[in-house]
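Subject: mismatched residue count in predicted assembly?

I count 325 residues in my input, but I want to confirm that the predicted structure covers every chain. Input:
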Amino acid sequence: MKSTALIRLAQRAEEDNSLFASLIRQFRDAEEQTQLQIAANLGIGELALARLALCERPRKSSILADLSEIARYVGVDSRKLVEFFRYAEAVEALRASSSSDAQSLQAARDKDADIPE
Amino acid sequence: MPPNEPSREWQHELHNRILENDPIAFAELCEEALFHVLQHLENAFPMVDAHTRETIVHDLLLNYHKRPKQYNPSKLSLFAYLRMAATADIRNETKRQQRRARRLADVDDPVVELELQKRNTLQELDLTYEDTSEYSLQEIRAELESELNTTERCVLALLLDDVRETSRYAEAMEITHLDDLTQAREVKRVKDRLKKRMERLGKRLRGR
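Triage response: the counts match. Full output below for your records.
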């Protein structure tokens, strides 16, 4: 009961962009992997993935130190975690950029449509 | 009795680490507090379903994470604050669910059903009146009453007097010797008949 409640909390936390949970969601959506597959790739179980999800994203001023502390807490290999973090952040940046491009394109189209011929 | 909680110093330190965005502090809090608060709710509100209790604690922890400064450590311990907030949230949620259940139950309540039908009937009567502006409301009522038997006239009068109790309709219809359900059913039957007569009258007046 205790672990399933924590796993469900980690899933609810995906909307909070300051938590690792949001990065896990970005990675899951981009790679079309399940939570269990992500956990397996990191060499941890589902409960440990939930603990990771509830960690803060590392602070800009101390990324490696924070990731190292998170890795220790979760029980994941720190190199795997750094790789995962960098990849997930890149996916997130790419998605934000494509979303922004799409919005700019739409705005430009709307502007064109407003100009009388 | 609340479940055991970690020392106040540990809680205070954890709260400060959360304020400083310590990378693992919130996860540590979740691991310790989630089950603690869930147990408290299970003891205090055993009648509330487990899913609702869990959702409330999840929301509470995530809200605290978003706004940790809403907790004032000088007043009470962090875990006591979470228990108190969860208790307030579950009471609000229970009230909300009760209100919703009452609204759903009301749909089947003969008195409420009658009231809803009465509103519809009066709306139809007003519509008829507007559509046939050359007739006064009294004329329309007189026209309608001329087609009704004594019982139906009594029911119409009660409706227009804004009477809500089924028992009053039952008295007017002289059916108080019947059981409540049958009374409600009979009142509804007369109401339906009245409604149909009104619809027909409206059509007839519009056609004149």
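The radius of gyration of chain B is 30 Å. Marking this ticket as 'not a bug'.
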